[in-house]
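Minutes, project check-in
Item: structure for the 689-residue chain
Input as provided by the requester:
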Amino acid sequence: GDAERLGGAAAKARSSLKDKYVSLLKSKGNWSVGKPADAADATSNDAAAAAAAASSSSSSSSSSSSCLGVTLERACRSFSRARVAMDKTKGFAISAKIQQALPSLLERVMALLNKTFITTVKRGDRAAVTRCLRAYTYIDQTHTAEEVLREEVVTPILNVTVTKAHLVRAQQKQQQQQPASLAKKPQGAAQNMDDLDPKAKKAILVLPLDLKELSAVAGKASSLDALFQLTLQALKTACGPALEASVFPFTAFHFTARSIAHELLPAIVSRGSNQLFAPYIPQRFLAHYRAGRRLVSGLEALCPDDARAKTFADTPALAQFDDKWNLPVYFQLRFQEARKALEDAVRSPPSLTDQDNKMSPPSSSPLALSATRAVWTGVLRCWREDVWVDRLTHRFFKATLQLLKQYASWVSFGLGPPPPLERAGLSPPKHERKRSTASTQAGGGGKWSSAEASSLRLVIAVEKDIQALCSNVRHSLPGTIVGCVCGGHDGGAGGDAEKKRTEATEMVTSGLSGVIGELERAGARAREVAARRIALACTKNLVTEVPRIKQRYSMTGNAPPSTALAFVQSILTPLREQLEDDDDDDGDGRSKSAWLVSRVADLVTDRYRVAVSDLLAVVQKTEAILSRLKKKKGRAKGTGMSDADKIRLQLFLDVRRFAEDLAALGCADDTTKALQDLVQLPPSIPKPP
């Protein structure tokens, strides 16, 4: 009865408009159809006829949705033309009457269009959905289509899937399970679909959806991630015809942002419990956060093009959803976990017993001390798959630098300044005197004040750990960081992905260069401290035995020397003992402690040269005094070798033996050149073989 009355009203309106149009033509004579009044009259007539046809078509049970879509499309096109015509015929009486009639006709057509759109979407008739979208576009009602889809399709699905009970149950099941790997899964992919029975799959993948069965499937979700992905798949199936039809040229429809995300994300925020977004249990929070990010990625994948993906990214619902995840608190908890182990390790001076710790270092390079293992473990922890979060990459990188800098500062402050080589009246070089005095005034030494912390073996172990840590940071850490940052990018073409990885590697390497420099400076201090401690042990007897040479030959009548003194052979004994303990090599037979030999040789040679120079100065002064006394008394010079020449000969023999010992350790020939030049024999003394 309603359809008959609607059809009769439309026919009556059509007849009335036709009569007015004909009388207008007769009164105006030769009126052109292209005139505004003619266009308004004709388009209004077409609109009324289209509305009547749509009404009768929808009331007939035998009419297909395809035919109804065609009729509605024609009606909406007529309305669009009528609006344009009315704008051009302002002031005509017929335009005012048509304008009064169009709103009621538009209301009827919109009601039919909305009903037809939802019906065709639920049936999966893409051709009919396309015609409906074209009709919405004609009458500029794209927002109406988005709202209708949200209310009639999206909301009913969310009311049976994303409920408060289902969200709580999914979280409880996830907590009961054993901690699983948090490896990334393909973005937007439905999870656990293979585990569903055929009836459950049909409820999710086949139109029309069975909401009752869908609710039962959602209630059995094994985790929050599974619940989100099942809901996303159901929405994709239900809204699929509209999403597929909204491609070019229908780019004004934003179904993903304004129909799906607009309803789904606020529903999760409002219905989720406090535990869903609480960051105080990091492992649970990360699982929930990654489930949410995979859901967002799945929604983004539903966008037909980049423009609508940008609209989705800017939607307020997504911003509200992202703000619920308290990432700064999560980062602080994770950083405290990584820093605590290092702080515990550096709270006390290092010990050689650390090498017996059963904690295996997380790298191929051996790390002897617990502090070194703790810092490297903490650095790698920041980039573990079950810790790292993409949106916190900058913070985790900063945390990495902080951990390494803290370790470098601990080593530098603990070792303190290198010990001065000032023993038995032997003054250090001028460039070291000021630094040595300042160190003494400040109390000397570093934070490691215990005997074990100041031992040579420990300093060598620290130096080796720093070298291994620098190697790890320089070579393996950039690959680990880039693997996290670029691992989730498919990068499109292989060349683009490789380019991104190359650029990321350059940025990471550049960012790590500063902290590598600090570690290297700490390692250089450790090497200098070790070298000076060995040099102190080497020169302990040297600085006392060299001045005694004068006592051996001055006015004693001893025969001229023929061999080096016994103490010369023991000068390098501390260095030899250290080299015997350090039997590592770099793979080609060369010792890794070559730097130690070179630096100790330079320090000991320099101290030997100072001692010899002081002795020769005393000998020369004494010789000059004796010469003046003999000249004053008129005594003739002796025929034998003088005491001064005996001393010079002994120094020559000692220095030559010392140079041979250094050469046996692999030192360059020019290491003792300045010392050998100092003890060159005068022509009056025959050079020994």
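Outcome recorded: The chain has a mean pLDDT of 80.
No further action items on this chain.
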